[in-house]
Design goal:
This protein is an alpha+beta fold. The protein folds into three domains: 61 residues; 126 residues, Alpha-Beta Plaits; 75 residues, Double Stranded RNA Binding Domain (2-Layer Sandwich). The protein is 41% helix and 24% strand. The chain has an eight-stranded mixed sheet with strand order 2-3-1-5-4-9-10-11. Strands 6-7-8 form a three-stranded antiparallel sheet. β2 and β3 form a beta hairpin. It is globular, with a radius of gyration of 24 Å.
Amino acid sequence: MRRLSQLQDTVITWRQLEKKASELAELIDLALAEGERSLESDTSAEIAQLEHQLDDLEFQLAFSGEYDTRNALLAVHSGAGGTESQDWSQMLLRMYLRWAERRGFEAEVLDLSPGEEAGVKSALITVKGAYAYGYLKAEHGVHRLVRLSPFDADHARHTSFALIEVMPEVESEVKVSINTDELKVETFRASGPGGQHMQKTSTAVRISHLPTGLVASCQNERSQLRNKETALRILRSRVLELELEKKAEEQAKLKGEHISAGWGNQIRSYVLHPYKMVKDHRTDYETSDAAAVLDGELDEFIRAYLKSTL
């Protein structure tokens, strides 16, 4: 039903655009026939608006993937470098939460493993909204930060890495084969700030899929059952993402392409010293306003990448 509603909205949008273009063409023909120039500024503005709408609709062609309409699960993993990379991971986590807020999407932290001194070792969030996965799939890969370290007494320049994983959220009607006999379920106490907020019972849940080695955990709910349900949903998404990667590798082999996966696949650099610049290495799109990007202004980077895939 949701898919049907989306298709109906698409048809209505195109019909309205077609009607508007037809009416505008008739108005222009009439003005030319009568030599009327008073409508020139108004029609020019409407043409510009029409072109903008067409550009947006053309951009939506990038969302042709099977799972692009889905909600997304986004995971942040700190790389080598200890506190530096863990702080960078927290900066990225905030960036994506701010991006979701700017777009009017709903974002929730499902799991978070804090660093020893600062930042986070890893975090998992769910982002709910129209085409959330379609947008965020552009962020999958390694993100590199260059800056003067706030944790170094000599204020030396450091390079940090973090890996971003993006998966489509599995919906109830999607069949992902997981044998319950192949699952290892563990419970533990949820990490927190301590004191009165410290969990006294083992409500957090970690589920391991033995055949693939995939692991999913959740600790944001007070109920162990709710955490288990969420962890299982995350695990199903990870299994689905693994299947998608296998299909992509098979297609790449048929095409004779070489896929560089993992930490060698650096997609973007964020330079804060000695100059300010954020550059995407896949599209060469860049900006000097690094502060705005880290505050969630990612749309131009995402748009540039998705257009490059058309």
